[in-house]
Amino acid sequence: MDKSEHVKSGRRFPINLYNKLEEKLRNKAEDTQEKSEEAKAEDNSQIKCPKCGKMVDRTRVVKKKYVCYECGGYFRIKTNNRIRMVADPKSFEPWFEDMEVSNPLDYEGYEDKLAAAREKTGLSEAVTVGRCKVFGEDIVLGVCDSRFMMASMGHVVGEKITKAIERATQLRLPVFLFCCSGGARMQEGIVSLMQMAKTSAAIKKHGDAGLLYCSILTDPTTGGVTASFAMLGDVIMAEPGALIGFAGPRVIKQTIGQELPEGFQTSEFLVEHGFVDGIVLRENLKKTIHFLIKSHQGTGKKTYADFCEDHGFRFELSEELKEQSWKSRPRSAWEKVKAVRQVERPAATDYMEHIFDVFVEAHGDRGFHDDKALIGGIGFIEGQPVTVIADLKGKDFKECQERNFGMPLPEGYRKALRLMKQAEKFNRPIVSFVNTSGAFCGLEAEERGQGEAIARNLLEMSGLKVPVLCILIGEGGSGGALATAVGNEVWMMENATYSILSPEGFASILWKDSNRAQEASEVMNITAQDLKRLGVIERIIPEFGGADKKTAEAIAGYMKEHIKEFLEKYDGKTGDWIAEQRYQRFRNF
């Protein structure tokens, strides 16, 4: 009965007595429910989801790779289960399992705590390392386990990781490390802190050898692990919803009294802010690892024929498009300016879907943000991996706003540079699609160093030791376009434009009248035909009457055939020769 029913029946309880009774009944019900849940858990048929708190069927959760079927929440998983998820059956060979217990500070009770953790988990330490195969490909695998003292990093953890990376360097194998940790191991004090520098130094040597290191961040990844090997991957992935941060929410609150907003230190937050390449689902984990192995294997010793021999594909125009291309009338410079500014004009992604077998986007500059005005990642063109960079403007008003109308901020250029330097490390050619009215000009861009970011790209791109192909598909606006267009060759679509600045800006500066933009466009020499004559570009890509939905596939087919020829031309050339050829190209201007 509620309080009103008690009043109607004439039984008037004092309100405080009623509340006490209500609380007692509620507590009894809760106790009964908890005991019921505990009983269910004890029979091993059900398990409590750490995210939604519901009791769920253990068998169904295991089949879903320890993901809650009610809320999609990820369970923390044991080392052996993680290994089974990614390694080929019976292929994992553990390394360095017999390392002695380390108690460098003679901390009282520490060795007993380690012994208890070993007995509880069946592990020798918080990290397990070794060699295995993933779809037949050899890798070095490391797995941190939060059950062992919250996977805190002590001397043995640091030593096992370092030795594994050193052996991987000797064997020339990629390293994949599943990270989780509560941070440094307090019982080992400063010795634990030194593991951060030691593991980082080993990763540097591994990287200098041109080898791939990938970290996969799981829940939780915090403290000294975040500030060392967890965030140093050539590729950094994270599981959905994982807590990732240097100082955890509790430490921040206790240290400076600051409450963090919900979702502040999640995987998704880190992707948005440019620190993680992407979220990886457990169901895709093994395939993703295999893709990364394949896409980061050096291609320098492979011939072009290895990738596309006997594919039987040759691009040919339909008779209709041939006729359309032959009949298309020349457009004025101003008509081209207006044409490339149309939202309906195909974007880089419209061509990429026909050029590349697959494209996987990477995210972020690892410092501030993931700029959606400029995307990048790895694509395969008939089996050969290439790094792809592309400006994107958006196809409707909402997307245009999200992509800042295709005007990159400094973090966009820094993301592009990060991916291009990665391409150099793994000997991947670079294809850059340029389509921007220019770099974003505004307070935030200046605060974050827009000029420095563009200058840094020009500096680094000039010396890249892999072939770089740049294709202007729409607008090429000033330094914002040049920042991703320092190529061994630069191509332009038939109706694209490339200029020192917009015609409006040109007219405003030289004639003090922006209304003379059309006139300015005719004297600025901004069309593909002008720039081919001036030697600024090497090739004009036909649009078969004009770039639109109907011609996008044909234009992409033409690009694909000639990109293949470009790759073949540079195959077998040394990195020094490629960089010098690019230097001389720009030296001649």
Please specify the SSE layout and strand pairing:
Blueprint: H1 3-8, H2 15-42, E1 46-48, E2 55-57, H3 58-63, H4 79-86, E3 93-95, H5 110-121, E4 127-134, E5 137-144, H6 155-171, E6 175-181, H7 189-208, E7 213-222, H8 223-226, E8 235-238, E9 244-245, H9 249-256, H10 267-272, E10 278-279, H11 285-295, H12 304-308, H13 319-327, H14 333-340, H15 348-355, E11 358-362, E12 374-381, E13 384-391, H16 397-402, H17 410-425, E14 430-436, H18 443-447, H19 450-462, E15 468-477, H20 478-482, E16 489-493, E17 497-499, H21 503-511, H22 517-523, H23 528-534, E18 539-541, H24 552-570, H25 575-587
Helix pairs in contact: 6-7, 15-24, 17-19, 21-22
List keywords for this structure.
single chain, 589 residues, alpha/beta, eight-stranded mixed β-sheet, 25 helices
Termini Cα gap: 90 Å
As residue ranges, the low-confidence spans are 1-19, 34-42, 299-315
Compute the gyration radius: what is it?
Answer: 29 Å
The overall pLDDT, averaged over residues, is 87
Shape: elongated
Helix fraction bin: 40-55%
- Strand residue percentage: 15-25%
Content-based structural category: alpha/beta
Total number of strands? 18
If helices are DSSP runs of H or I spanning 4 or more residues, what is the number of helices? 25
The description of the largest β-sheet is: 8 strands, mixed
Walk me through what this model shows:
- With 589 residues, this protein is an alpha/beta fold.
- It is 43% helix and 17% strand.
- The strands form three sheets. Strands 3, 4, 5, 6, 7, 8, 9 and 10 form an eight-stranded mixed beta sheet that branches.
- The longest helix has 28 residues, at 15-42.
- It is elongated and about 85 Å long.
